[in-house]
Specification:
This is Porin domain-containing protein. It comes from Hyphomicrobium denitrificans (strain ATCC 51888 / DSM 1869 / NCIMB 11706 / TK 0415). The chain is mainly β and about 450 residues long. The protein has a single domain, classed as Beta Barrel (Porin), CATH 2.40.160.10. The protein contains five helices and 22 strands. The strands form three sheets. Strands 1-3-4-5-6-9-10-11-12-15-16-17-18-20-21-22 form a 16-stranded antiparallel beta barrel. The protein has a two-stranded antiparallel ribbon with strand order 7-8. Strand 5 (about 140-150) and strand 6 (about 155-165) form a beta hairpin. The radius of gyration is 29 Å and the shape is globular.
Amino acid sequence: MKSVFTLSCSRLALLAAFGLAMSFTQASAADLGGNCCADLEERIAELEATTARKGNRKVSLTISGWVNEAVYFWDDGSQRNAYVGTNSLEQSRVKFSGEAKIANGYSAGYTLEIGVQGNPSNKWDQTGPSSTDANSPNNSLIVRKSNWWLKSKDFGKLTVGLEGSATYHLLDDADGVNTRNYSDAQAAAVAQGRFQLRSGGAQVGGTAIRWNDILRGADNGTSGQNGRRNIVRYDSPTILGFVLTASWGEDDQTGVALTYKEKWGDFNILAKGGWEKSTDENLTGCAPFSATGATREDCEWWGGAATIQHAPTGLYVYGGYGQTIDHGVELISAAAESKSDLWFIQGGIEQKWLPLGKTTVFGEYRHDNLGSRTGKTFAVDGGASGYVHDGDINFWAAGIVQNIDAAAMDLYVIYRHADGDLTNSAGDTASLDAFDMVITGARIQF
């Protein structure tokens, strides 16, 4: 009798649970307005509206980028301050890219990259952290890249649109360690950007001549490399570690470059070299200059850089050379110095001492031999006024970059120092006050 009674109780319990579940389901359906499927479809539509989707099922869509913000402590010898803003060396950005397979070994794709800046670090000066460049204001978006491409496994890649030229980041991209985004070849020039030069605690010659007025080069005051342009570009397939790049565009710019990446025993090797020429009057890095009433431009540059790293120890050396030849200044004065060049060297160690990720410790030196900048004039101690004829600038830096692998994040602290002298066409020389800066920030990728 006991076992029958227990079984009956169990059946009653199951029936009660089933009835309770049915009543709950009916109540839930009633709460959804009597049509649960319609509400479910509405919710799915809402999620789709707020989710990145492919425009079609043939071409992929990938969204990536990073945020790079930092605090800058600076001292120009007579004034000091601290600013917060977007690190313009590798500004915050969003990248949209995609690819579609055409046939076996052939594909097509696109790149659309938008730069995002709060207070751009290379546009502020002693007057405050707001941008002093009307063409690059605070809290703005910049189209960095917009292009389509065709790629063949055997024949290489053809790109059309806004993209880096053959010598784009020629010296920077030869940096094979984790200083590439924080202290590469052009970092010294970008850091000081539009800060005004000081000599004896005052503006040089009483005029607002800035660091990027005297540092030459087609891109970010760095001789030997170019920027992003509207071009047709070709990249060859990799052959024995080499990739050949050629580009043409704007009005007119033509260049070639060669990249080499390989491992020799315990050593990782990365090297780049290239040459480019421009007759484009809108290329602000070399001109325009007015000669005999006409705007003329004729500029060329070349350079090379490499990184050699001993993989077991993490010790490395990264260095290079770049030169700009501005034939435009020769049209204004036969005495003008048409050549500007620089050389730099960085050494350090990169090891995973912490479980967080790799740590990179480094020191570097860059020296610039300045050419003429005829559009900028100054006088020294009441002497005759003359255009910037030449000069010598020294940059020192040291820092540490700590990778946090789990968060795709890098933390960095970098000290920078600059000094030198500037000579005008009258033969007078101004000794520049030292400029010191400490940069600390982080870049997080997505």
